[in-house]
Amino acid sequence: MPDSDQVALGLDLLASLEHEELSVAEALDRIETITTDPNVQREILDTAEVRGIIDREAGFVRPTSHNYVSFESDVVSREGEFTCQRCGTGISTGYFISFDAGEHGPFGSSCIRKVTGRE
């Protein structure tokens, strides 16, 4: 995936987090599901801050939007053989988040809740 696509997907992910506040490390845990490249991760965080998607202060990130992922309309499940994008576990049901920038996943049932901030 080109870096610009990863940045767009990362911005969509940060804009939809259901956290009032999370540490930069916790935000990076979510961003690592998109890319492990530290330069792209930094670009996602910096761009999100410049665009007002997050406020970043003293090691914490605060999403500014309340446009949360709807499990009814934004998450698609598929049966098959997948590897969870977050934890690397083999899964038979993959959950994918539909963002404007593209689809993100697959995730297992607990990781999809963790990534979106439901857990």
What does this structure look like?
The protein has 119 residues and is an alpha+beta fold. It has 2 domains: 3-63, Arc Repressor Mutant, subunit A (Orthogonal Bundle), CATH 1.10.10; 75-116, no CATH class. It is 35% helix and 29% strand. The chain has helices at 3-15, 24-31, 38-50, 109-116; strands at 22-23, 54-57, 60-63, 75-83, 90-99, 102-107. A hairpin with a 6-residue loop joins strand 4 (75-83) and strand 5 (90-99). Helix 1 packs across helix 3. The chain is globular and about 40 Å long. The termini are far apart. The model has no long low-confidence stretch (mean pLDDT 91).
> What is CATH's topology name of the largest domain?
Arc Repressor Mutant, subunit A
Rg (CA only): 13 Å
Largest sheet: 3 strands, antiparallel
Kindly state the percentage of residues in helix: 25-40%
Tell me which CATH architecture of the largest domain applies here.
Orthogonal Bundle
Overall shape: it is globular
Mean pLDDT: 91
Helix count, per DSSP?
Answer: 4
Please provide the count of β strands. 6
The first-level CATH class name of the largest domain: Mainly Alpha
- Distance from first to last alpha carbon: 28 Å
Structural class: alpha+beta
Order of strands across the main sheet: 1-3-2
InterPro entries: DUF5830
Organism: Halorientalis brevis
Pfam families: DUF5830
Protein name: DUF5830 family protein
